[in-house]
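Write out the 3D structure for:
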Amino acid sequence: MDLLISCRKATELMEQRTLDPLSLGGRVQLWMHLRICEACRLALAQQRTIERLLEQRDSRTPLPDSRVLEDRVLNALPPEGNGTT
């Protein structure tokens, strides 16, 4: 098991921990990475803030309908196959 992992792997572990507890190896890898990577520490702090806000959200209030925004974003994208990426 590599103890030093990439930011991509650390992000995967941070996301995974929101769904299921990490294995001991995953916890150690993430802990080691967070000791040396300020960017991932900030990302974890942001993730925890979002989790806390979602927990505090009044579940009786429906989420806003995002279809209008989705349509605006999709219509602003260039058509597929026009050679731009």
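DSSP finds four helices and no strands in the chain.
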